Amino acid sequence: MDFDFALLLVVLTGVTGVIWAIDRLLFAKRRERIALAANDVPHEPIIVEYARSFFPVILLVLGFRSFIAEPFKIPSGSMMPTLLVGDFILVNKFAYGLRLPVLNSKIVSFGEPQRGDVIVFRYPKDPSKAYIKRVIGLPGDEITYHNKTVQVNGQEIAQSDEGIYAGSGDEGHKMSGAKLKIEHLPGVDHQILQIPNIDSHKEGPWTVPQGHYFAMGDNRDNSEDSRFWGFVPEENLIGKAFIIWMNWDQGIDFKRIGTLINRG
Question: Which residues are catalytic?
């Protein structure tokens, strides 16, 4: 089971906040009176001092991570060439609404995923895992995938050739020689990879249910995505990936730092 950092932050915030509050309400004034009577300076117990110091810091981290942005590291090559193994990204947590930490229930709605968005979500078959893919199908769409080409509601999504991909890093070198193409989704042009001589075994059609999304990796022949495990429920959304803030594979790749992910 993956480590639940959000739960840890909630617990630490609650524990430090309760310790600090109980001390202020029940013990601080008594401690001050005793110290004043003895012409001394009141001394906080060490646990109270730590709680008072750490509570606002942990609360700030919890609020930022839960409602503004959360960092993730790319562990696989399924989103190549857009995202590489070793990329550290930030995810906009309020792009599709605010959710309570741990419970993941939406409290405020701001918008919905658009076709072409790169989203992070909890894997439907194991919500403890976070996946990242690109939104291809919206609720109500019919998606097919034939001859390495996406069709949305019967309309083929155009592609243009960009030559042969030359990868870097351990995972990138494995994809060297793949076809590099631009896929022209409505409003979003983005790169994809295709491996010659590999057939598209999962072709559809798939009709996207209401409240769900069809997501695919940009590394089309090396991605476990909605073609294999189904749709992404709206309640599983974590946020919209928006920037690469660091890359570490075989050292720091400074050229990738600051790269925007979602561009339309």
Answer: 78, 133
Nearest CA among 184, 180, 182, 204 for reference residue 194? 180
Q: Name beta bridge partners: 181.
A: 161, 192
Question: Do the Cβ atoms of 98 and 241 come closer than 8 Å?
Answer: no
Residue 240: closest CA among 89, 123, 127: 89
Residue 161, CA distances (Å) to 144, 147, 190, 246 in order: 21, 15, 12, 29
pLDDT, tens digit (0-9, with 9 covering 90-100), for 104-163: 888 888 889 999 999 999 999 999 999 999 999 999 999 999 999 999 999 999 999 999
Report yes or no: 10 and 101 within 8 Å, Cβ to Cβ.
yes
Task: Answer whether 164's CB lies under 8 Å from 179's CB.
Answer: yes
- Residue at 209: amino acid letter: P
Per residue, the 3-state secondary structure of 176-235, as one string, reads CCCEEEEEEECCEEEEEEECCCCCCCCCCCEECCCCEEEEECCECCCCCCHHHHCCEEHH
Q: What is the pLDDT of residues 239-259, one digit of tens each?
A: 999 999 999 887 888 889 999
Alpha-carbon 226 to chain mean position? 17
